[in-house]
Amino acid sequence: MNRKILLVSVLFLFTSILGYGVYWSSYDMERLPKGTLIAEETSPDKTYTLKAYTSDAGATTYIR
Q: What is the pLDDT, as a whole number, of residue 56?
C-alpha cells in the first residue's frame, strides 16, 4: 500500500513540474519583451480592445 502512495505522489510531482515548465516556456506573458505602444483600437460595441506594440529585442535586427 505504501509503495502505491509513493508512486502516485512521485508521478503527481513529476507531472506538476512538467506542466509548470510547459506553461512557463510557452504561455507566460511576462516572458514577452516590453515594447512601445504604436496603436490601440476598440471594437464598435466596446467589448474588445486591440493594442499593437513594437519591440526591439536587439539580437536579430540589422539597421543600415
A: 73
Residue 50 belongs to what H/E stretch? Answer: strand 49-54
**Cell triple for 42:** 476598440
Q: What is the pLDDT of residues 14-64, one digit of tens each?
A: 999 999 999 988 888 888 778 889 999 999 999 999 999 888 766 665 565
| DSSP type of residue 63 | -
Residue 6 half-sphere exposure toward CB, CA atoms < 13 A: 3
C-alpha cell at 54: 513594437
DSSP of 8-41? HHHHHHHHHHHHHHHHHHHT-GGGSPP-EEEEEE
